[in-house]
Structures
1.
Amino acid sequence: MSILWIVGLPLAGALVVLVVREVRLLATILTTATLVTMAILCLAQRQAEAMMLLGRSLSLSPQEAVGLAFCAVLLAALTLYSQSIAPGPLAYPLTLGAMALFAAATMIRNLAISGLLLEMGAMVAVMLIPAKRPGTAMTGMRALVLLALAGPLLLLAAWAMESRAVDPANALLVRIGGLSLIVALGIGLAVVPFHVWLPPIFRDGSPLAVVVLSVVLNVTLVLLLRSVTQTSLWSGGVEFFSTLLLFGGMATVLVGGGMALGATSLSRALAFAALADLGLVLIGLGLNTPSSLDAATFQVVYRGLGIATVSMSLGIIQHCLGGDEFWRLRGAMRRTPLAILGLVLGGFSLAGLPLTAGFTSHLLLYQALASQRPDWAMLVMAGSVGPAWAFVRCAIGALVPVPTSAGQREPLLAGLVVVFFSLLLFALGAYPRLLALIPWESLGISLQALLGL
Amino acid sequence: MRNPVPTWRLFHFVWTWTPLQIALGLTLVSALIFVVEERRLTVLALLLQYGLLGLLMAPHLYRPVLFVRLGLGGVICLMLALTAGSVQRRLGRLALLVREGQLLWPTNLAPALRAMSLAGMGAIFRLVVMALGGLVAYNLWRTYPLGFVPAEINLASYWLISIGLLMVLTSAEPLRMGLGLLTCLNGFASFYLLLEQGLVVISLMGVADVLIALGVVICAEAWLASLGEEEAAP
């Protein structure tokens, strides 16, 4: 079966779902089935021969296949969850369309085309944000502007890198290529400019929008970064990138952690915890040692699970309590117990607290950083206090017994999806070797190769 | 009876413009997008911008590519024009309500009221910002000339990028931000298309522009719908 099915199937699915979107149950089933099939296709095509399309090479490495499959499964679960909480008429087709474009961007071995497909995927994903609620349109527009500006920068980087192959001595091309690539990836990962565009999405966006823009887009960008640093950089470029990633990661952890300390709502706590967690991923990539790269890979996966769990809980809480400010959470355990379970376990995992999945990857990253820069490791650990404190405050508030009036009931299907994710995070935290039980070898992937970014 | 100027003569007249004249035309048209408040007119100015940019780049591009880009520009402007009409009508109605003192909860509508007049700034402010954009573009052109791009195209692209970015930064509603973004991207495309002649890349750039316009339309319509919610709120 051709590798093109990985792109063609979600695109075709998006068109079909667009037609049947009014029948929400059917649309949910079709979207979930398409995403699960896409995940299976990714794993089946992980070692397929590269193919040529319009003179460009298309292929999928095992890491890329697993990364895309993870994103597809995550979105399939989010789709099931969204069945109970109205996601907006275009949410499912847009999700499938964005996923198809991100998959195409990952598979094509040409930075200019890959960058354009990534930009197009981001544009489609941004369309998930606007709703009738005040403020969502401007949040979407700001994200659209910044992500649209990242596209030309990627094109410029691709041109400079291609031209450098013809004229290797041209230092100007190196400067243009390096700077454009850094700024473009920084915008995409929400590190540039000053972490501004992503946090409002956690406040205004649906869980689907949050996961597509903060998990799927990040996974795609990290895979692109890996592909670029392996093939297209100039001499000394990898060291230059590693240093930048390290500094950018440190800044992100400290800003995210500091802002989380002062959070007054669950959405802000989640936004800054996710940002601080992204900083840890960047630190792991920047250290560029086998153990730090392994830990960064774990961190990408656990961060995705944590964000998905807390954003789903957030959606339920907003639906049932009419908002997510900390004062509204008082006594929430009685009205939304499943969401609070997800909030506690998902939040603690994002903060890296023990007995949750995030603890393993946080610990590995602290160790990797401490082996090279012990003082920085202390700073990063101090930065992680912010998210932990924010989620502990949420948990304490929710557990306080206060009399509550009757309100919206917690949707059962959405709650069950949250519980499944929460238990998964707990199981991976309590028994970290659970991942090794998955029969990677029978899938043709060695765990070492999977973890080796 | 008045004798209308035949269309072909108009085309012939425009076709004979020198690159410098076209660049000046682009400057004027982009300035109109920035200064004029009537949104339908700004979309018309964007359409003219696509046309003049095509004219400026005509000697350097394959004709089919040029016509496809012009066609996509037309599609983008058509999409934006429909939204511009509804935004203008809704804001006009709000302005009327404010004048007649019928708005009981004006603070709810603060974003819309700000957007009515370019973030509440006057014409002098807009002209000063535009002059700043011109100054930035001119200095960039003098300091960092792109050797591989003709001087007129280089100046036009710097001008479009700077004025587009300034428009994004000084706007308070999605449609005007979108017009600024598209102006900025036109500035980038005007020199990038001279570097990259691959049909796949050029086609994908066109599709990306259409998706961006679609995103702008969706955000602008959602913004209007949210104003409706606020109007209805007690």
2.
Amino acid sequence: MSVTDPHFDVAVIGAGPAGMSAAATAAGHGLRVVLIDSGRQLGGQYFRHPAPGLTAPWLSKLRHGWSHFEQLAARIEASLRIDVLFEHQVWAIEPGFTVRTDRGPIAAANVVLATGSYERVVPFPGWDLPGVVTAGGAQALLKGNLVLPGQRVVVAGTGPLLLPVAAGLSVAGAKVLGLFEANPLRGYAKHPIPLLTNPSKLLEAADYARRFVGNRVPVRSGFIVIEAQGADSLEAVVVARPDGTGRRRIPCDALAIGYGLAPQIDLGLTLGCDHTLLADGTVALRVDTDQRTSIPDFYAVGETAGIAGVQTSIAEGAIAGLVIAGDRTGLKALRRRRDRQRTLADVIRTQHPIPPAWRDHLTPDTVVCRCEEVPAGAITEAVEHLGATDTRTVKLLTRAGMGWCQGRVCGYAIACLAGGGTPTDLLAAAKRPLARPVPLGVLAGQDQRNN
Amino acid sequence: MVIGAGVIGAACALYAARAGFTVTVVDSGPVAGGTSGAGEGNLLVSDKEPGPELELAMRSQELWRLLAAEGLGEGFEYEAKGGLVVAATASDFSALRAFAAAQEAAGVIADEVAADSLAEFEPYLAQGFAGGFWYPQDAQVMPALATARMLQASGAELFLGSAVTGLLTSGDGAVRGVRTTRGEIPARYVVNAAGLWSAAIAAMAGSALPVQPRRGFVLVTEPLPALIRHKVYSAAYVSDVASSDAALQSSAVVEGTPSGPVLIGASRERVGLDRTPSYEALQRLAAQAVEMFPFLERIDVQRYYCGFRPYLPDHLPAIGPDARIAGLFHACGHEGAGIGLAPATGELIAALLVGEKPQVDAEPFRPARFEEVEAA
């Protein structure tokens, strides 16, 4: 394929719910689409599923809205206008557009960014022990490999993701010793309208509540994990109120912990898209009602426009597909549905901030950046004695956030520890000049000769 | 009072403090927030032709060694690792030989390495180079840490996040401090070490100091074991550094670091302060690095960074008193060599402040030289 000749009308980056929906819609209107994903299957994180032949009796109980996936997958597989490229890692997008992948460049007239999200975590003593996994990681292991992270599991952190994680672990046979939501949930009572206008969400919550009662999963709100204990692997976690009172030690062999999701937007930020800081401290691409970003012909759908869940992702993919195809039929209804869901998503965001008290429970030797093994004490020294007043300087002086994950894991924590979590620091944590590591041979342009 | 918490400002603060002055450092941003935080930390003599810049570099190498011997070096990863300059063709090699001979006359140690001996220095270097020269005096520091540690050692009071908005002068026209966004700070002497922003500071005194940005990209790989032992670069780099062309030049300088990643610098182009990624520049650096070290082809680049060198038209820094305002000194325009030239610059400024004869002749660095050009 040639870079100068726009081979495709649309390049969709990410084959999760939003990307699948965008690709199916655009192709359904006669456009030539390339759907690119780093993984090996359609569905992304939400519709992650095991390889053919691998199954379990409880698998169907993990699957919410599976019929949506099957319908989208059928439309994509039946379409002659969609090229699906699996195991292609996009590391940059150039204006125009040239989508740079580890297997060569792809030219397209429009781009839909559907790269989803990544999980937010904050450090605490012992969080690098084997047995401590992220909530999303536990779910991916379960959905994709049918593997449990442990037999006696504590689920903790904040946000709606904790509910399906605890329910899924329980269904798959783990003993869930507790679900600890960091924030008090009474705040939802102040926002009845968005809840009542999204009745499916209320029903979903009620369904989880029933399951937790049935499976004897204790649910506590207002508690955080302040320490993971163990010699070589996890043996217990200590939970407490953010101020350190109400301490309890819970023996367990796994902890699934997550503090919500953050949009994966590095490709858009490097291209120069406008962005917006949301109430939970995450940064999303700014879009208009048609999912257009500030860069013409560049669209952001689903989590890249702010975490809002699977239904919103599917609606927004369809909106972008219709807009690019120039067909406004049905657009109004889709936008209304999207707006209603986004209103609720904004409420959810305000109810699940990361409690700032996580900082109080760090010790100087708590590792903050796991790739580069930078302890909290080194960051404190850089801030207090070496004149590092912002994220960039802390990274320069300590190498925190400079390792393989490029700060996806520790970026939020460093932004808080370095600059107190100012908007500039939080934006710096979302930026990555290369969205993925790229081999020098590919960067050198040898991919163009080899392909 | 030093304006600028980069490496030049830190060195000025350190040597002024050692000369007995009480020092304050003011910067609109954080420590090493400009060029100092965006470089590789090269302390090179190998790329400099005989002349005033080489003299300054030679004195600086000596001072870096002394700072390291004081124990400061561990805090900023000082490595006297040496540099290997390789020539692709026989004609490049003979040009390099002539260049090295002139450098040797100026005190640089440069040993010729025959083509079949290059592998003794760099076992993973590509085959087919015509030969090279070994420069044992070339060294490396981690530039942001070097800046922070020198500032710390100076004991200077830091005013970070405070932009200088004007110079305060007394009745006789001499400087008496600066005005900042956070209030006035009095000082008997003011040193302008504001790097990319030093032209604006000079302009507050009515002086012309045409410092312009020259952009560079540096690639950073995944951490590797020590497969690349020295600084290795092509003979073409020297002519790129000396060039005044605005267009993109690149010749890869490849080196390992104590923390593992290999750094691949550096492109040069004059495009103002534009941070838009240039995939052409990245592509050329990558291709040149792979040509030199074929094993790098499969190694991941984790990130790249972009920086701007404060460049003066004659490629020499401006170090010395302002032509108009008594008590105001300039120490800026070191382009891409600021880390290497910092300690000698600081020492020179300190000598000028106390009125001693400096170790290095200050005459070629006179800031007033640009005014004379304009007048002529």
